[in-house]
Every structure is written in C-alpha cells, then in structure tokens.
Q: What sequence folds into this?
C-alpha cells in the first residue's frame, strides 16, 4: 500500500477541494490517488469527516426511498439520470459545416485555391469559428490587402434584434481608433449574414499563448495588461462597454509587442440576442464580473473586473474561477474569492497581485476608478520593473492597507501544515490515546476492500479542524495583499518542503 | 426574491451594525433554502414567496430575544438556531394542515421558538437542508461526476466497477466525489455557522 507515499503532498489535496490546481497537478493527483490509500483517506477527511460522509449518504438514501410516495413535483432532483442519456448537454449551436457555409453564403469563384468570394473579397481559408460566428481569411484584390472577415452565425442572424445591435455596435466600434483596438474596415449588416471586415494580422490570441506557455512573466503581464487597458479606455471614452474581455479576445501580434482588443460588436449582439433570454449564457463566463454573472446591468467597471481576471490568468496560467459547469463558474464568480496569486505563482510581485485584487473587487463601486488610470498604473509598474533604480513604484501600487489578510493566510497555511503533520504521522509507535483501535484500523485500511466508500475511511485524524480550512484560506484574498505575502509564501514553501512524510 | 431594502426593513431594533451585516448575509444564504423547503412542503407555487417572507419575518422578530454571549459570531449562530426552529414549526404545521399557504401567521411561527425541538424534528430539518444543498451542488458538476458520486457514496459500489462503467478513471472519481462532498458541507456551513 501507499507505494508512492514519498510523493504525497497534503497541500495539493487541500487545493483540489478549492479548485485551485493546475491541470497538470490534477492529472498527477488523479493518478497518485489510485495508488495511494493514505492520500485517498486524507482527501476524504478534508472533504468531510467520516460521520459527515455517512450522514449525507444516509439522508440521500432515505430521500430516494421516501420520494416514491411523493408527487413528482415535490421530488428532489438528485437521482443521476439514466446512463444512456449521459454526456454533455447538446451544444448551443451546431458547428458550422464549412462546405455548406461556402455553398450557402459565398459566391462561387473560378479559382481553385479560393473557397469563394464575398462581394469584393476572395475568401482563402477559415481562421477560426465559434458560437458567435466564423472568421475567414481573405484578400481584397483591388487593394491587394489581406483581411479577416468575421461572419455572424446563421442562428444569430435569424434574430432581427441581434442584427440591429450588431450593426449599431459594429459602427460604434469602427469609431474607436486606437492602436490597441482591432480596427473595423467595413461593416455589412444587410446581407444574408452580416459580416465585419478587419485587417488581417498574423497573430495568436492570449488564450492560445496561455495554453501553450502557462503563466507569463510579470513584464509580459504588465505590457499586455497596459495595452488592453488602453484599448478599453478608448472604448469607454466612446460610451462602449466591451462586456467580453477575455484572453480569447486579446490578440498578440507575432514578432512585435503589439496587443489588440477585439470582438466588441459581436459580444453586444449576442448578449442582446434571443440566446440569453432562454437562459443560455453567451460565451465563457470565466472572465465575467459578478454583476454580469447575476444578470444585472453592467457599466465600465464590469470591464475592469474582467481585465483583472485576465491579469490573474496571465499571472497564474489559469482563470480565477473554475468549475465543471457554467452554473458552477457563475456561482464562484459571484460568491467565491479566487486562490491568492502568490500561492499559485510566488514569482508575481506582491504589488501586482494586490492591484489585481483591487480590480477584482466584488462590488463594482469599490473597484479602481477607470481604465485610463489602470493603464497608467500598469505602465508605471512596467517601467519600475525594467528600471527599478530610476523609476519608483507608482503610488497606486504601493499598498498601505489590509495587513491582517496576510496574517490570516499564514494561519491557514500553517494549519494545513499542522494537519498534514498529524495525518501523515508515521504509524510505527502508537500514541497513547489511540491505543489498540488505530492499530486495527491501519491494518484494515491496508487490506483490499469490498467497498471503497469514503465512509469506510479509517485513518485517524481530526476532520473538524480540516473542515475550517477552506474558509480561512478563501477569506484571505478579498481586496489586496501586502508585502508580507511574498515572505509568507516563501516561509510556507519552506515549511511545506520539510520532510513531513518521511517514514 | 425580496429586494435587499425589504430584507433590511425586516430587522427590528438591531443596534449593532455588524449584526445588520450578519442578518443580510444570513438572508442571502438562507433564502434559497427557504424557497425550496416551502415548495417541498407542498406550498402552492403562488404562495411560496409569502411563506418565505413570513418565516423570515418570524426570525427577524425573534431577534429581540437575543442577547450577546460575547462569543464570536454568536448573533449569526443564534440566527441559524432560531431559523431552524421557525422552519421546524412551519413544517410541523404544514404536515397537520397541508398547503396552508397564507394561513400560517408570523405569530404562530414564533411560538416557543427558543425551545429545543425534538430530535425527530431536528432530524427532518437536517434532512431538508442536506437534500437542498445536494440539489444545489449537483448543478455545479458534470453528470458523470454526480453519477460517480452517487454510485460510490450513496449506493456504495466499488470505485473500480463504476469507473469502468462510466469510462472514467478511478482517480477522477476520488477527486470529484470529495469535491462534491466538500461543496455540500460548505453550503450547509454557510447557513449553520
């Protein structure tokens, strides 16, 4: 049993329950749990004590027994659905079939290397597609100009409201002239399918970059963040709220440092289309603000929250709020605090993670003032990183408050360590208070089991102490973190790397 | 659901600002449970908001009986206990005269609210709470995760068998069922703390 016990990391288990593991860590832990009885028991005890597992089990069981007598409307919705109907929910829209699309929407062309033409544009290839529409690469022969054409998805184009919003917003976006905003060259809103023409830029999205490289350096975070903030400031100055600021809508031009914000008009059109009225949420909610997740009215402060979430993702390599379903993400956005950035990436300067915390304040009125100011502050932070001796840290990045949070976090980390020490205590000498019983339990746990239900977990520990941990750690990151944190996190690392699991 | 202002006006003579905040937090956490509880007791849909309002009102009025024992968060704990007792009273009445809807008065609900209810009634309350929390949590997880949780935890089937049947790894079952359990407890703690 527990052949790989020397690899155990109690902290990972705790983080798992807070959904703060990277995908690689989850993968590793998943494999490790299959081999390690000790970690399985510990995980289950952190999730709930033995008595709580069995209490929940008994209640759910009796609920199913009882509800046979109940009218259907009063029954709980707990029983898993029949396995034959398992699987993902049907997608909101079927993926576009590109051949059908070419036939339905493009005019045929004589040239074989061209999919078809769209007015004055020769369409060469498909760049990407999603629920909102499809992006094509094309050439305008008369201007000898490469363009990207974004075509609205057919199911959206069927909605008159969506079309109207699309054209209005697209025209408004065309009025934003800023290096950090992807320009719109032409808008065609009256055809079969509305489309936008933009310059073709050899680029990748920030999402693609994060998927490939994970967390970015602080210099890159500030450089990209500053330009996105500038683009937002330009939009806000035109009275536009982007409402869909996320890494997939941030383009990084290849070879140069230029960053462009894109996808203004479609986001608005989708939001106002028929889709949201039926309760389907447009796009990924991972970067939404709490007010947006609740369906409340949003203003420019909502974009600042999303910008904060994007900065968070760049610092840590993962979005701040994750869950298995859209509903789960929405709940976390409105209710939970994300895992403190220093815990995920200690290399991030504390002033930066503190600032991101201010952007991501749950209450919009308590967020930072404007995208303009954010851009300026991030620019100052970047200058400071590059020339620390001549460029002092901007005042807005020197946090003066909220010291207690740092201490609370240390308490949480230390408690984790203490519990890990208790649980992973070598089994050899029996402690006097457990005489007899724990020895029996240990040997029972070592045997192969008929049922491996969590209620049978037997390793001795203190589940109620473990139970209070997630709250403490979550509270630790509400508004901002101070300089203490870097040191705390270093101390925690030292503590955690101590040989707890020597056996 | 009532507007936050309405919630606030329910409070009778709360002098301590921290308690105001505690009340608001409590209502935000508790109200969804009350809605579901009332529905499950058979209250007709149109009467449910009324019933929820009455229960909250009864809890709020009982606030006068509270005295600070100096312990941390004691107001909140006390609120949870009073709310439990009010709900138990409501469920008991509802069982005797089903779907009373508007027939239950706030004053009735407040009667003997400080008495410790019988074990069987507490048990029923816990049952409702856990079922509600599990229903909430279910929507946050993929159907496969929920099925695996149910099969291995409630039905106590072997993890290996369930993993094979659902074509997922045993490791992912260990992870997701503990996450589900932790979330159920978290929701209940939000109410009971």
A:
């Amino acid at each position: 049993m527990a052949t790989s016990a020397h690899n155990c990391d109690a902290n990972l288990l705790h983080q798992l329950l807070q959904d703060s593991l990277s995908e690689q860590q989850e993968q590793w832990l998943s494999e490790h749990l299959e081999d390690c009885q000790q970690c399985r028991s510990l995980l289950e005890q952190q999730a709930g004590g033995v008595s709580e597992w069995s209490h929940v089990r008994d209640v759910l069981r009796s609920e199913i027994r009882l509800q046979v007598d109940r009218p259907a409307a009063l029954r709980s919705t707990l029983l898993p659905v029949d396995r034959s109907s398992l699987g993902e929910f049907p997608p909101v829209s079927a993926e576009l079939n590109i051949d059908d699309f070419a036939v339905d929407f493009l005019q045929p062309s004589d040239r074989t290397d061209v999919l078809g033409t769209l007015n004055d544009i020769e369409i060469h290839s498909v760049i990407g597609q999603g629920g909102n529409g499809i992006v094509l690469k094309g050439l305008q022969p008369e201007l000898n100009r490469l363009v990207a054409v974004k075509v609205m998805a057919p199911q959206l184009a069927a909605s008159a409201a969506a079309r109207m919003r699309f054209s209005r917003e697209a025209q408004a976006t065309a009025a934003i002239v800023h290096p950090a905003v992807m320009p719109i060259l032409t808008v065609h809103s009256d055809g079969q399918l509305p489309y936008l023409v933009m310059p073709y830029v050899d680029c990748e999205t920030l999402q693609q970059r994060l998927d490939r490289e994970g967390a970015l350096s602080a210099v890159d975070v500030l450089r990209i963040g500053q330009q996105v903030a500038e683009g937002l400031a330009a939009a806000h100055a035109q009275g536009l709220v982007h409402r869909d600021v996320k890494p997939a809508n941030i383009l990084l031009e290849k070879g140069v440092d230029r960053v462009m914000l894109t996808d203004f008009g479609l986001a608005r059109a989708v939001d106002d289309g028929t889709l949201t009225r039926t309760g389907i949420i447009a796009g990924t909610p991972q970067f939404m603000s709490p007010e947006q997740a609740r369906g409340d009215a949003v203003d420019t402060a909502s974009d600042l929250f999303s910008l904060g979430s994007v900065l968070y993702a760049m610092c840590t390599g993962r979005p701040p709020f994750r869950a298995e379903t859209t509903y789960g993400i929405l709940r976390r956005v409105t209710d939970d605090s994300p895992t403190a950035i220093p815990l995920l990436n200690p290399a991030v300067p504390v002033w930066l993670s503190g600032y991101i915390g201010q952007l991501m304040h749950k209450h919009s009125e308590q967020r930072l003032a404007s995208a303009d100011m954010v851009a300026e502050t991030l620019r100052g932070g970047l200058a400071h990183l590059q020339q620390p001796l001549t460029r002092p840290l901007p005042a807005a990045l020197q946090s003066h408050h909220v010291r207690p949070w740092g201490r609370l976090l240390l308490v949480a980390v230390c408690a984790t360590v203490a519990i890990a020490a208790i649980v992973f205590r070598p089994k050899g000498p029996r402690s006097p208070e457990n005489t007899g019983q724990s020895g029996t339990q240990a040997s029972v746990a070592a045997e192969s089991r008929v049922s491996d239900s969590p209620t049978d977990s037997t390793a001795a520990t203190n589940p109620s102490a473990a139970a209070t941990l997630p709250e403490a750690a979550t509270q630790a990151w509400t508004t901002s973190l101070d300089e203490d944190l870097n040191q705390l996190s270093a101390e925690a690392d030292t503590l955690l790397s101590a040989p707890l699991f020597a056996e | 659901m009532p507007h936050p202002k309405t919630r606030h006006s329910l409070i009778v003579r709360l002098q301590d600002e921290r308690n105001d905040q505690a009340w608001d937090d409590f209502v935000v956490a508790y109200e969804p449970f009350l809605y579901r509880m009332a529905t499950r007791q058979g209250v007709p849909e149109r009467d449910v908001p009324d019933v929820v309002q009455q229960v909250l009102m009864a809890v709020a009025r009982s606030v006068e009986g509270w005295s600070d024992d100096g312990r941390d968060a004691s107001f909140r704990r006390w609120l949870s206990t009073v709310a439990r007792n009010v709900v138990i009273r409501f469920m008991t009445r509802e069982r005797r005269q089903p779907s009373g809807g508007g027939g239950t008065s706030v004053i009735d609900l407040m009667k003997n609210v400080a008495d410790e209810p019988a074990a069987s009634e507490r048990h029923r309350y816990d049952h409702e709470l856990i079922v509600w929390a599990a229903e909430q949590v279910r929507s946050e997880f993929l159907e496969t995760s929920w099925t695996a949780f149910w099969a291995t935890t409630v039905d106590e089937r072997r993890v290996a068998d369930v993993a094979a049947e659902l074509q997922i790894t045993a490791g992912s079952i260990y992870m997701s069922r503990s996450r589900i359990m932790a979330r159920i407890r978290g929701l209940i703690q939000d109410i009971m703390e």
Chain B has two domains: 4-117, 140-193. Residues 1-13 of chain B have pLDDT under 50 and may be disordered. Chain B touches chain A through 46 residues (CB under 8 Å).
